[in-house]
Amino acid sequence: MLKILRSFRDLPNMNVLMTCKQQRQVDDDTNVTRFVPLLPGKALTNSIGYLFDEVFVMRVEKDEDGEDYRTIQTGRDRNYEAKDRSGVLEMFEEPSIKRIAGKISAEFRLDDSESHGESEISDEDDSEETSEAIDNEDELEVNEEDSQTPASDEEDQIPLNLDS
After folding, report:
1. CA 125, CA 97: separation in Å to the nearest integer?
2. Distance between CA atoms of 131 and 111, rounded to whole angstroms?
3. Pairwise CA distance, residues 99 & 140, whole Å
4. Strand partners, 69
5. Angle, in degrees to the nearest 10, between helices 2-9 and 42-51
6. What is the b/e burial string over 74-106, where b = at least 16 CB atoms within 10 angstroms of the residue's CB?
7. Is the full-model pTM beyond 0.70?
8. 30: pLDDT strictly greater than 80
9. How far apart are CA 109 and CA 23, in angstroms?
């Protein structure tokens, strides 16, 4: 299974997005509940974070008025496994993969220009590669009918590799 995941992750000239469900694990010793990717085999579940630069968790939370809202968690905490290798994302981001990919690719363009002696990058310099790789944000929007909060509190976890 790792070989298959790596072959998709390493597709040339592509940004690869993989999604999966997650499962609840309760540590018998500490009684801490963690949410981890639902994958075949314990070894794969434990190593999935090492395969990708970005691992996100889509969470459904409640605002002050008790209304549900969605957010993408990009960093690890006590209960959720997530990471942001780019270092440019907030702990919680708006649930738009297009915006997140744009923030990350803007950072890479900035790093690239600094290494080539360029001092400034225009906001108008949008990444066409990011737009093409993330086909259409409308396709990524959540269908409200399909996205009701599951009774088991399982949420989607989004591993994301943005290496070009």
Report:
1. 19
2. 20
3. 11
4. 61
5. 20
6. beeeeebbbbbebeebeeebebebeebbbebbb
7. no
8. yes
9. 36
